[in-house]
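Regression test case RT-17, inverse folding.

Input:
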């Protein structure tokens, strides 16, 4: 009888426990946090840039003696004027514009291409004073030569290659550069007798060359990217001829019919440090 009661009690207790457990709320597992997709540099982008451009180059003056009446021999020129003295033309200004490009990421390596177009205020007038041959009297004269060099715009088309550490990209770049150069030249020659010759000339030219540099980019978001960059560009040299415009001979202003020409030349290159912001599509 005792065993029957104990067995009944055990069965009843088990039944009550099962019923109570069935009434308890089910335990729920917390959902896994969503994993953000890894950032990729692959894609098209476009944006704006701005910075500073500067160049430290000399202007080399020269003379071309085409006067059939008073031709100078090479020996006379070498004796009186062996080498013309150059003078500095240090240009500095603002540069800014827009860029567009495409990147393709392979693991941690990124390759791409970019084109940009920028306006510039790099403009500088400089002058130098030197002794030159006096073509009319076969002696020496003092000449003041002034050059104004202005670059109003510059463009580049470049390849890029870099190493990506998540949202940071270190890269090198290089390619083709092109730009407009305005070069004006004026000279004033004062001879020992007090006679004065004036020359003036101008040349505007679109030139092509090369560029290379390096930079670092950081992706603020999946779409917005900021950049710091250095570029060097070289468009070759440019020269201008200063033709005679007037003369003061014996105190009287007369047209200068001499065919002696003044000339100046300089290398057109520069350094650019700029910041940029781009939107990646």
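Golden output:
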């Amino acid at each position: 009888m005792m065993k029957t009661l104990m067995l009944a009690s055990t069965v009843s207790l088990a039944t009550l426990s099962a019923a109570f457990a069935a009434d308890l709320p089910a335990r729920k597992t917390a959902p896994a946090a969503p994993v953000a997709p890894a950032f990729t540099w692959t894609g098209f982008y476009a944006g704006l840039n701005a910075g500073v451009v500067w160049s430290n180059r000399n202007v080399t003056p020269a003379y071309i003696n085409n006067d059939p009446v008073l031709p100078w021999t090479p020996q006379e020129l070498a004796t009186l004027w062996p080498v013309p003295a150059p003078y500095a033309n240090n240009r500095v200004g603002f540069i800014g514009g827009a860029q567009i490009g495409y990147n393709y990421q392979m693991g941690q390596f990124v390759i791409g291409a970019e084109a940009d177009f920028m306006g510039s205020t790099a403009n500088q007038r400089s002058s130098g004073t030197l002794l030159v041959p006096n073509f009319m009297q076969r002696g020496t004269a003092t000449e003041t030569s002034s050059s104004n060099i202005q670059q109003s715009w510059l463009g580049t088309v470049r390849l890029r290659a870099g190493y990506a550490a998540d949202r940071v990209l270190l890269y090198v770049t290089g390619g083709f550069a092109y730009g407009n150069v305005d070069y004006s030249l004026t000279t004033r020659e004062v001879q020992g007798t007090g006679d004065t010759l004036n020359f003036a000339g101008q040349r505007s030219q679109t030139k092509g060359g090369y560029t290379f540099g390096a930079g670092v980019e950081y992706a603020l978001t999946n779409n917005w990217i900021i950049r710091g960059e250095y570029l060097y560009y070289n468009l070759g040299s440019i020269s201008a001829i200063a033709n005679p415009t007037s003369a003061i001979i014996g105190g009287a202003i007369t047209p200068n019919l001499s065919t002696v020409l003044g000339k100046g030349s300089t290398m057109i290159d520069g350094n650019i440090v700029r910041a940029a912001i781009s939107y990646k599509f």
